[in-house]
Amino acid sequence: MxxxxxxxxxxxxxxxxxxxxxxxxxxxxxxxxxxxxxVVRFIGDGETRSRSQAYEFLYWIYRSYKEAPETGxxxxxxxxxxxxxxxxxxxxxxxxxxxELEIGYWIAPQYWGLGYAKEAAASIRDYGxxxxxxxxxxxxxxxxxxxxxxxAESIGMGFEKAVSMGGxxxxxxxxxxxxxxxxxGPAKGN
Length: 190
Known about the structure:
The protein is an alpha+beta fold. It has six helices and nine strands, in the order E-E-E-H-H-H-E-E-E-H-E-H-E-E-H. It has helices at 27-34, 37-40, 51-67, 116-130, 146-154, 177-184, and strands at 4-5, 10-13, 17-20, 72-78, 84-95, 98-107, 136-141, 158-165, 168-176. Strands 1-2-3-4-5-6 form a six-stranded antiparallel sheet, with helices on both faces. A three-stranded antiparallel sheet has the order 7-9-8. Helix 1 crosses helix 3 and helix 4 crosses helix 5.
């Protein structure tokens, strides 16, 4: 898979996906993600969000762009037809008192099983390494979320530890680029 780095508004493009900043007109799609019990089952407390909570989430995304323009969640738009399929990005997280950079990805259920999560996660990983020069990434995954665990493993991440976040057990999957390069050759693959 080949990823191309683009302008800050259009973070990057992979083989099948464009990664672009959220805009106001994307609200209904974001609302559909946040309101779908299947999508949020393993995110936070697992509860769907109301429209007003979805607006708060969108404003949080906008603030993240202002604070760190090269990171944050980006809308995943399918190149073949311009349809949004989910979102992914690099998100600052506090894990056990340490700042971490999370590779996060959500895909709408109608697009599950098509490889979009793996493609997005691998592209975000490569972007973080090549463009931002980052050497460590995490993904925070609830233990029952076997599909996300599989995606994390497919991009070179491994189980590091279990932590408690928001009263829930969360598995921390991590990738240390320097260690992966020393042990297995380049961290990138696919």
